[in-house]
Structures are given as C-alpha cells and as structure tokens.
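The instructor's notes for this session suggest beginning with a concrete chain rather than abstract definitions. Hand out the sequence below and ask the class to guess, before any prediction is shown, which regions might be ordered.
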Amino acid sequence: MTGTIKVLKEGFGFITVDGQDDVFFHANNLEGVDFNDLQEGQTLSFEIGEGRNGKEQAVNVTLVD
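After discussion, reveal the predicted structure:
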C-alpha cells in the first residue's frame, strides 16, 4: 500500500491514503530511510500491522523514489 506523508512530528507521523483514514507510523518502523530525511508530501510504501497499543499502524515503511 502507498500513501503520502501528511504530517511529521517528533519521531512519528501520519500517512494519507486515498479513500481511507490517515495511518499512523513510528520512526522505529522505517526501513532504509532515516526519519530526519523525510518531508511532508513524500510518498511512502507500507503494510498495515498492529502497534504496541493494539491499534493499526504502518509497518515496514519505505520511501518511494
């Protein structure tokens, strides 16, 4: 699944996916990219998984070139 970075906070952010609710992601779930190199508006590829609190979140998050 892919989406666009909507907002970045300190160590986490939200991804906008067309036709769905925004998806939370945490810096610990990034693969091959440093959180500090991300910018709002970039496209990410990810899977949906379960976070520590039992809620859905993005996992295996990578930057799409």
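Then share the key points. The chain has a mean pLDDT of 94. Residues 2-63 form a domain with the OB fold (Dihydrolipoamide Acetyltransferase, E2P) fold (CATH 2.40.50.140).
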